[in-house]
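Re: Re: token formats

Sure, here are both.
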Amino acid sequence: MKSVRKKIYRIAAAVMLIAVLAQNTAFAEETAQNTTINSTAVSLSSPSAILMEASTGTILFEKNPDEMRSPASITKIMTLLLTFEALEKGRIKPEDEVLTSAYAKSMGGSQVYLDEGEVQTVDTLIKCITVASGNDASVALAEYVAGSEAEFVNMMNEKAAQLGMVNTHFIDCCGLSSDSAHHTTARDVAIMSRELITRYPQVYNYTQIWMEDITHVTSRGSETFTLASTNKLLKQYQWTTGLKTGSTSVAKYCFSATASKNNIDLIAVIMGAPDPKVRFSEAQILLEYGFAVTRLYVDENKQALGDLPVARGRADRLAVEPKGAFRYLDVTGADFNQIEKRYQYVDAVVAPVEKGAEVGYISYSLDGRELGRMPIIASEPVEKAVFIDYLRRVLSKYLV
């Protein structure tokens, strides 16, 4: 009887240990990067700006990053994000044909001159948005994805809330509005830009187009129209990958610029620049600064980790693996060869265990300072053993 009690106590202790570990250990891919490193590194005339490294979310520079401003057409970053999300979920396809409504045609500002009743594919409309910043194309695509622009705008605001864009509110899908209720911040633009390029890097297939022809087929016949990129940095800065420009009389000149060099992806957001040349030149200044001071340590964590013993499970071993790649962004010139990697596992694993459950972590440290942790997770589920499982084990042990 005493031995049974001891076993029960050991199992209970193991369960409590796992619960405490789950509650008190904040496993994260990056724990030391998400802080502002320098706010005086460069001098900008634009009233609001931010520089972010995309893979870690590290802020490298900021100037009034939470000042609410009109975003103009960089609003379309969220429109693109929801479009690619709909593509990912299979709700729409690139080859789907979209009928242009009278309302979509009526959009002013930057447009690609879609006619009422004109049909274009989703793929073409994405080009019209990313290359030429077409307001009419944005509305046509929003109506196709959500049924109406109003419902699409609801989706935009829901997504903004999910992403933690606390100072953002949209009232249209293209940024044409000058209403103060349509606002965001440099930080929030960087957040949605990061979400777009890290989740859907295929957007670069569109944002790096300089010029491309599309064909309008209407009752008047067939006509070629040339899309010309609004992102002049594509020709001015060799590392440019995107992303979106915007301008209105209220917003002035805005830009969310993305660039990639030495496996580092940067996002530079400029808002309220006094003229278009300033938004491009100051975005480039931020990008050049970012590439000059940063290096990225990446551990892909593709190695097998073996397995752990499992108590009270249908299987007595649990295969485990790192949750993903670990990234650390450095601005100090640290020697990455000195980074130490340690494995820590829970003392005991008790079934049931769900696939993806955290059972430990990999710790990364440099000069005695922990850089971050990567969770170690269960590669497969292990169900709790039942009577028949114990019976089989006994039989296999004594009847073999």
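Second one below.
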Amino acid sequence: MPLYEHVFLARQDLAQAQVDALAETATNIIESNGGRVVRTETWGLRNIAYRIQKNRKAHYVAVDFEAPAPVVAELERQTQINEDVIRYMTIRVDAHEQGPSAMMRRNERSERGDRGDRGDRGGRGRDDDRGDRGPRRERAEFDA
């Protein structure tokens, strides 16, 4: 069977229990039509790039599954009807990612307080040590 990833964004004013119920509904649609859910991840409430239906944030949920093509059509039809879902996307993949997704790894790293791959490179040049950029110059006053 083909492999798919389905990601949907739920409204920001929903409770986490309601978001979990939406994920469970998607799982039920897939399994009742002959598919198999491999993994379901809730990425949490995150900022979105632009406002969608007056929402500045959304709950992100990802579902990895394998199913025949008619299951995808039914899942998207049911998702489109639901007013709590503001965006969704289903893509076909060659293989599912092993272990946690990139979004989950990113969340774990930010919770631990890691600085990522930056190492000891320091700040962004706003310290007293000005490096090779020379002394700080004050902005010139312009006479009108």
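The radius of gyration is 22 Å. Strands lie at 3-11, 36-52, 55-66, 85-93.
- S.
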